[in-house]
TrEMBL record:
Enzyme class: isomerase
Species this protein is from: Motilibacter peucedani
Keyword Isomerase: yes
Cell compartments where the protein resides: Cytoplasm
Subunit annotation: Homodimer.
Name of the protein this chain belongs to: Diaminopimelate epimerase
Amino acid sequence: MRVVKGHGTRNDFVLVPDRDGSLEIAPELVVALCDRRAGVGADGLVRVVPTDLAPEVADQAGEAEWFMDYRNADGSVAEMCGNGVRVFARFLAQHGWVDPSRPLSVATRGGVRSVRFEPDGRVTVSMGSAELLPDPVQVSTPTGSWSGTGLHLPNPHAVVLVDDPQDAGELAQPPVVTPAESFPHGVNVEFVAVRGPAHVAMRVHERGVGETASCGTGVAAAAVVAARAAGPGAPDRWTVDVPGGRLSVLLRADGEVELTGPAVLVAELDVDVVALGR
Ligand SMILES: N[C@@H](CCC[C@H](N)C(=O)O)C(=O)O
């Protein structure tokens, strides 16, 4: 199997090109490919497939020609991936499958997203609007417990404002988020500290993965919550530092959230699928 390795602020992905829509990717194969010792190693897998060959999104793809079929490292599917979709776009452009001088529509399980290539080499994706839960959620780790904000963007997120992201302690295990009914399909959890006006730092525990160096939908959720906490007149452009680098978020007046950052391809390799995981 020919695959490509890429990352966005070190949130890393195995991309599987599937131009003729012929690949069946079972959860076990995702787990084996994402394994960091016996596989290629990644936080998630992205299958690159034309929408007309993808029954999952065929009826909702609109004008999008390509489907970003995203899976977490544990084999579960997710609505969207803010870093993954930017790396996906980089793959399409670098392989000449799309024209980078034009905006690109990408189908995801969470809806169609618009991507554009910035003159400085970064990639921007329009993430949709945040849907906030009406009530606060409680987030606990072995080092503490905090009241947080629950939201969908469109993936589920619980965002906690802390003095320092290190306050969350070890994030190998998922933080406990209550009430559990708030997120029946699991949740990504962000620990966010204000670093200055329109500037925050964040750590994240990703649903289906563990602690990662970055999470695009989580970064966008962090900016939304930080801006709400800043109150009326809060800036619309936010800088979000993650362990893997720096991303920019624009909170548009119409509610749309835009995420901008690097998207890099680092390798193209042939995987011996039979040997995987041995
Ligand atoms: N890393 C992603 C989010 C991937 C999905 C997430 N783990 C979930 O299950 O919702 C991003 O960059 O947004």
